[in-house]
Amino acid sequence: MATAITGYDVFEQALGIIKPWSVTGTELRKSEDGKRLEMHITVDFAAGSEFSCPQCGTDCKVYDTSEKIWRHLNFFQYRCDIHARVPRIRCERHGTRTVQVQWGREGSGFTLM
Ligand SMILES: [Zn+2]
Predict the structure, then answer these.
(1) pLDDT tens readout for residues 79-111
(2) Which residues, in sequence order, are CB contacts of 93 under 8 Å at separation 6+?
(3) Which of 26, 27, 41, 53 is buried most, with the most CB atoms less than 10 Å from its CB?
(4) pTM, whole model, 2 decimals?
């Protein structure tokens, strides 16, 4: 039996986004020169989520977040920006660390702006 595709599943699969992350919005906007459409995808994490320390893997609470944008030049034929607030965690052993995100990995095609 086929699984029903709901909401932003197709984007989450294409981007390799897994819990606690999810796509919370997509939008096609005209580029500044008005010549083409650009895709904007908003990704966010569930409230109260914990993330592993990049150094030791311990689950830690979120300390703060910062807004970041990644850009892909040819995603489904569009220039595509991913907007997300990326958490920093505070590890008892390693201090404040920025969490690594799936779509920011090397080879993903997305570049941090
Ligand atoms: Zn740690």
Answers:
(1) 999 999 999 999 999 999 999 998 998 888 999
(2) 53, 55, 56, 58
(3) 41
(4) 0.86
